[in-house]
Design goal:
alpha/beta, Glycosyl hydrolase, globular, hydrolase, seven-stranded parallel beta sheet, 14 helices, GH, single chain, hydrolase activity
């Protein structure tokens, strides 16, 4: 088991102009934001170039934009903050940002068209190489929840197979490694990868490809609607995803990064955001092999910007004019307490069996979704005082696998007292 203390960070949403700030880049404004973030005791940020602004033509990666990214990373280093960079944006807060050379008259599949993939690889390699000599550069994430482009409910998906998704992941992660060898390069999906039967980005890919596994936890996916704001399943959703990922991991102690988690209103009302934040992060910290927690997000979206889903305007740890919020105070308190008296979780010895069909494609993974047999059994076990993890059905009787993970008891969803009939909701939109 890893003895490394978990990292604590935040997804950086600029207070001035949101991610459109790249158009009017103001390093002084960025420094102000980063001072506020560092003031919470956090140690890293995840940042988001807008792909169409950085690579407006397939063979043009703008040097000025890359320089802005480097200057942001250097400003973060001055404040003791490490930086992870998401390359392909891709998708952010309900808006898609795809370059014109992939759309309309130039419409090409962003996952398997050879020219598009070659352009993406060069872009990611360029960003990684620009930061390769910066000690505070953690590595690249390929993009933000790019799996949402590959299937419904996206209104215009770029359809691919699971094999094509896997080839795309390897190709682009190789490009990141070429640009910055030895860094933590990974990919990240929204929870359809774990919950949606026909999603071509799969749990096995998430848990086996890249330097570590990333999970994104959002309780507006049917969890809070079904279980309420203080329900065990709601407050444990992030921990559940961390432990669910381990069913597919080949390494018994593969690190898992809770890369996005937030308190979405109105399901989590503003007056309860701090309590939800505390409960969620505390639960995640009781998961062995947790690499870190990165809250979504640093600053609220300004009300001067139009057409965001309502919940997006209030997810920050700070208001967009830099005032601290109760959720930020709660996160800061947890960080301080963890560093003062670290919680070191013991192995989770009870494993819930996951039978989602073929382990590579998981055609029945909706059993893991809110309302599904595995999801509800995990919540019931937790409510009864257990600290469950998960194991694939095919490995549930493998003594060596169980021993390597510290598992001494295996239970099925039926044995945990839940219904075996899944009424899992269709995967929600990715924001």
């Amino acid at each position: 088991m890893s003895s490394t203390a978990p990292r604590f960070g935040v997804n950086y949403t600029p207070s001035q102009g949101w991610f459109h700030h790249w158009l009017d880049f103001d390093l002084d404004a960025v420094r102000t934001d980063l001072d506020q973030i560092a003031g919470l005791g956090l140690d890293h940020i995840r940042v988001f170039p807008l792909w169409p602004l950085f690579q407006p033509n397939r063979t043009l990666i703008r040097p000025a934009a890359v320089d802005q990214l480097v200057r942001l990373a250097d400003a973060a280093a001055e404040r003791g903050l490490d930086v992870n960079v998401d390359g392909l944006q891709g998708h952010l807060s309900s808006f898609d940002f795809l370059p014109a050379w992939t759309q309309t008259w130039h419409r090409r599949n962003i996952f398997h068209d050879p020219d598009v993939v070659a352009g993406q690889a060069e872009y990611l390699r360029t960003l990684a190489a620009a930061l390769a000599d910066r000690p505070n550069f953690l590595g690249m994430t390929l993009g933000n929840e790019v799996n949402q482009f590959a299937a419904g409910p996206h209104p215009d998906p770029d359809r691919i197979t699971a094999d094509q998704a896997e080839h795309w992941l390897h190709t682009l992660l190789d490009a990141c490694e070429q640009g910055a060898p030895g860094r933590l390069h990974l990919h990240a999906a929204y929870d359809a990868a774990w919950y949606q039967d026909d999603q071509p980005f799969t749990p096995a890919q998430a848990a086996r490809i890249g330097a570590l596994t990333a999970v994104h936890s959002w309780v507006f996916n049917g969890t809070a609607q079904r279980h309420g704001r203080t329900g065990v399943a709601t407050e444990q959703h992030a921990a559940y995803l961390v432990e669910l990922s381990k069913a597919w991991a080949l390494e018994p102690h593969r690190p898992v990064w809770l890369q996005e988690v937030g308190a979405p209103a109105p399901l989590i009302p503003a007056e309860h955001a701090a309590a939800f934040s505390t409960a969620t992060v505390t639960a995640a910290l009781d998961c062995p092999d947790l690499w870190g927690v990165t809250w979504w997000c640093s600053h609220d979206v300004s009300r001067s910007l139009a057409d965001f889903p309502e919940l997006e305007y209030s997810l920050g740890l700070f208001t967009n004019d830099g005032r601290g919020k109760p959720a930020g105070e709660a996160i800061a308190a947890l960080v301080a307490e963890q560093r003062r008296q670290p919680h070191v979780p013991v192995p989770r010895s009870t494993a819930l069996v996951v039978d989602a069909g073929d382990e590579h494609t998981a055609p029945g993974r909706s059993v893991c979704a809110p309302g599904g047999a595995v999801f509800e059994a995990f919540a019931r076990l937790t409510a009864d005082g257990a600290r469950p993890t998960t194991v694939l059905a095919d490995r549930s009787a493998d003594p060596a696998h169980l021993a390597a993970r510290g598992i001494t008891e295996v239970v099925t969803p039926e044995q945990a007292g839940t219904s075996s009939t899944s009424d899992a909701a269709t995967a929600a939109h990715p924001w």
